[in-house]
């Protein structure tokens, strides 16, 4: 069963929500010690909520659009009564006093929150090795990193510990681990999903999005969490499509992508390992077989994407962490945080100073405009840009990488965040058993085109 079929089975009383929850609890109990995807699980509350949903269904009462589906939530998104630590000692005792808007929406549609997923500390990382609670093991490639910073979320989905996980994506933090763990992950258009209740890393780049094992999990989540939020200033007033209907409408069609124009980019290939490019080439051929027209474009600013992204990230992260001063809650961040978080705070502090702001931060903002304009120009006459999600395979857990080697994982994913466009990763294949992701990018608010291509790609298997 895919996730939509499971949802319908629950609503039709073919299986119960309680059975769904209990099955995931069993998997978590069997696997989490080795994988470390969940930091906290509330079995009793999840089972109680499932029983409540089952009773409603039995009595013929109306239930929500996610009735009985089980969710994991990244540890930087507020969920009432769970420890929301952002995987840092700084907030090890901080208990969420409210639900983030996305969590409220999931609960209002009878989705069940089973627990909190591990992550890189304060989302500062690409491997989920910087967590105060220990690294996450990749269930799809044991002994290797799951990617980051939403590595616990991707691992939980990949290990079949939940139906859907909700992560955050600042420079690829949903798509990178989705690629490494062989699952689907999507960063919607900037502003499509409310960030209210997210412990931000870089507020002008952050976006919340879903991860799942199949396209129906992605679409059901998007249909729930996308929408205007008057309490969050970046959200869009947007008449979003029904993503589940988009995905379902192409089932059985021989050429579901007919009329769509997709582009590859030479510069994306040049920074990517050959064995990954081979897998991506086959995936692009598959998209052509499904009816898409293929063109090749050039992107002239790939060399400035990483420095632009990280300069903005450092400054905004430094600003975001000033509230963690040990007075209102938690510990003083600089006194207890890990090496990568401290590095970003110190660099951000340095380049935020008045005498350096123009030299670094303002130039980064100018470069961001260049990148955004170039990407929008590329997307003017095509529906999608496709290519590798990550340019190299995940390294072994514990292998020491220099900061710039770690940052290199993000070179192809930061572009979407800098430009504010939607982007997703789907499993394209594997290299000696290690998953490889295909990234799809579209114009702002063209999220539906990405969903259409993801669905076509999945259903053609």
Please tell me about this protein's structure:
This is Glutamyl-tRNA(Gln) amidotransferase subunit A. Keywords: ATP-binding, Ligase, Nucleotide-binding, Protein biosynthesis, Transferase. It comes from Methanobrevibacter olleyae. It is built from 18 helices and eleven strands. The longest helix has 19 residues, at 17-35. The protein has helices at 3-11, 17-35, 43-58, 101-108, 151-158, 175-181, 215-225, 243-249, 266-270, 274-289, 302-320, 333-336, 339-352, 354-357, 361-379, 403-407, 414-419, 447-459; strands spanning 38-41, 70-74, 112-117, 164-169, 184-187, 207-212, 261-265, 293-297, 384-388, 423-431, 434-441. An eleven-stranded mixed sheet has the order 1-3-2-4-6-5-10-11-9-7-8, with helices on both faces. The protein is an alpha/beta fold and 461 residues long. It is globular. The chain has a single domain (3-257, 301-367, 386-459), classed as Amidase signature (AS) domain (Amidase signature (AS) enzymes), CATH 3.90.1300.10. The two termini are 15 Å apart. Helix 4 (101-108) links the parallel strand 2 and strand 3 (112-117).
CATH topology, by name, is: Amidase signature (AS) enzymes
Q: Which oligomeric state applies?
A: single chain
Mean pLDDT: 97
State the major sheet: 11 strands, mixed
Q: What class, by secondary structure content?
A: alpha/beta
Query: What's the CATH superfamily, by name?
Result: Amidase signature (AS) domain
As a percent range, the share of strand residues is 5-15%
Q: Largest sheet, order of strands side by side? A: 1-3-2-4-6-5-10-11-9-7-8
State the shape. globular
Compute the separation of the termini in Å: 15 Å
Please give the CATH architecture. Alpha-Beta Complex
